[in-house]
Design goal:
Shape: elongated
Strand content: 5-15%
Structural class: alpha+beta
Distance between the termini: 39 Å
């Protein structure tokens, strides 16, 4: 469904004339639309989010025991495939996200056993879920629970036949079990590495993922998640002393680094469709991502806090920290605001989340991605708000 946006162009011209060069420097997270067009747009975005387009890539969505399994596999892949290069936990996380959502809604024991077991569709050529080929039984139901054919199993969705030739004993208990997180992760790492790929090379990484599932769409999906998780892994912000809800908020926002800026994009569920424009220009082409207040809305929703959709409205929540108190009054997890006119919250145009050390995580402006910036990178510091 295409939504035709009307009205903003006139407002943009007016704002540009009023604010001049300042608008050319900054992005706008103010209300993008009003009236019926706005309501229709927001409803459309929410509907698309509900169908899965707004899934968020955060390190917080990985159960700790699964993340441990991915890291264990990276540490031990050299023992299994000595010539493998470039294996990183985000690669394994990208595969497992698409295959099983990191064993979602399963219990993961200390030794890595996953219960209840994860079974895929019976591969009988029915066409369900893209299943167009018949796979005859190879394990008499040992791993896939049925002697009448094959089903993919475990968090990495191996067929029993593939597991037989690629399975590994990742937890050193003497058993190669695709329903064990450590075994499955090391098996997936070995399968991706082949005889010794260099997964730091984009072409070899894509070839490895294509081997896992012969689908270009699958490759694009997995590489997208790898990029998301890599952004989280590459964080240079120390959250060592940040705990509780503040840590969850910050981890959730940091893991979105690299997601495109999208004016009107982002909601409590994650990134969503918007446009790549603001009062400072750009083409208006559709793009899925976050604008500044969309990012904060998403991050705080992870701890059950619902925020209004615009930066100016978010300044009215929590304990207000005036700009006159200086940045030293901010704590990690605080919202941090920027406005066109000091002391007038109605002019606030931008919001980020304070990380500490004078840094914030934010969706800066069209043409950029979610990233870490100094608080001083934006003009018009307008203080903060403490919600945690």
């Amino acid at each position: 469904m295409t939504v035709h946006r009307v009205g903003p162009a006139r407002r943009w011209l007016k704002w540009a004339l009023v604010t001049g060069a300042l608008l050319a420097m900054t992005a706008c997270c103010m209300a993008p639309l009003s009236g019926a067009a706005a309501r229709l747009t927001l409803l459309t975005q929410q509907a698309e989010a509900d169908t899965g387009l707004a899934g968020a890539g955060t390190s917080a969505d990985i159960p700790p025991r699964m993340l441990q399994a991915y890291n264990n596999a990276v540490q031990h892949i050299g023992d299994v495939v000595p010539k493998c290069r470039g294996m990183r936990w985000p690669i394994l996380a990208g595969i497992a996200k698409v295959e099983s959502n990191h064993a979602a809604e399963r219990d993961i024991a200390g030794n890595g056993d996953i219960r209840p077991r994860i079974y895929g569709l019976l591969l009988n050529g029915s066409g369900a879920g893209g299943n167009t080929s018949v796979f005859n039984d190879t394990d008499s139901g040992k791993w896939d629970g049925t002697p009448f054919g094959e089903r993919a199993v475990g968090p990495f969705q191996f067929t029993p036949a593939t597991w037989e030739s690629n399975g590994q004993d990742g937890n050193a208990d003497g058993v190669r079990d695709p329903h064990n997180a450590d075994d499955a992760a090391l098996g997936a790492a070995a399968y991706l590495c082949g005889r010794g790929r260099n997964l730091a090379r984009t072409d070899q990484l894509r070839a490895a993922i294509f081997q896992y599932n012969h689908s270009s769409e699958y490759v694009a999906n997995v590489t997208g998640w790898i990029s998301q998780y890599s952004a989280a892994a590459d964080s240079n912000v120390s959250l060592k002393n940040v705990t509780g809800k503040a840590r969850i908020v910050l981890e959730s926002a940091l893991a979105q680094r690299g997601v495109p800026y999208s004016w009107g994009g982002g909601n409590a569920n994650g990134k969503s469709p918007g446009v790549c424009c603001s009062p400072s220009g750009k083409s208006g082409a559709p793009i899925t991502g976050f604008d500044c207040s969309g990012l904060t809305t998403f991050a705080f929703a992870r701890v059950g806090i619902r925020l209004p959709r615009t930066a100016a409205a978010q300044a009215g929540r929590g304990k207000r920290i005036p700009a006159s108190s200086g940045q030293s009054a901010l704590q990690p997890g605080d919202l941090v605001f920027f406005g066109y006119a000091g002391g007038r919250d109605s002019t606030i145009y931008h919001v980020g989340i304070y990380l500490g050390g004078g840094q914030m995580i934010n969706a800066p402006r069209p043409g950029t991605n979610v990233r870490q910036d100094p608080v001083d990178a934006m003009p018009g510091y307008a203080g903060g708000a403490r919600l945690l």
